[in-house]
Model the fold of this input.
Amino acid sequence: MSDGPYLIVPPAAKVARVLAGCIAFLVVVHVVTYWLNQNGHGFDQATRLFDLDQESNVSTWFSSLLLAGAAALSFAISRHSGCRGTPGARRWIVLGLVLAFMSVDETATIHETFGPGITEALGFKAQGILLSSWVVAGLVAAALVAA
Done:
């Protein structure tokens, strides 16, 4: 007789190696295409596609995929915890929802759309570390999650 659903998770070391390999690949391609573009070899599109400091490209997709995977894992842990009667299963759902939102935001750049409006509504003038208005909105969101 089964005592609930089982989570089949690969070994952490293997996951870490695969993710490290993906990150290394993205960094190498970023550096190579940037260098080629800076030295006049006409790699504008490839540079934009793999620029780690830009949005809407391969690195953004990778980040969004990681966040979506973390959200899915949080939901699976919540379900597993709920079946076992473990306290705190609802916290995993909340974490999954936050991670799912972050995944969508990474691709859809929601924080960059609403960040300026939020800082204006709160009466903040973006200066210094707060130059990017999304930082203030992020601090507000983090305070809400912490509460």
User: Anything to note?
Assistant: The CA atoms of residues 8 and 120 lie 46 Å apart. DSSP finds six helices and no strands in the chain. The first helix runs from residue 12 to 38.
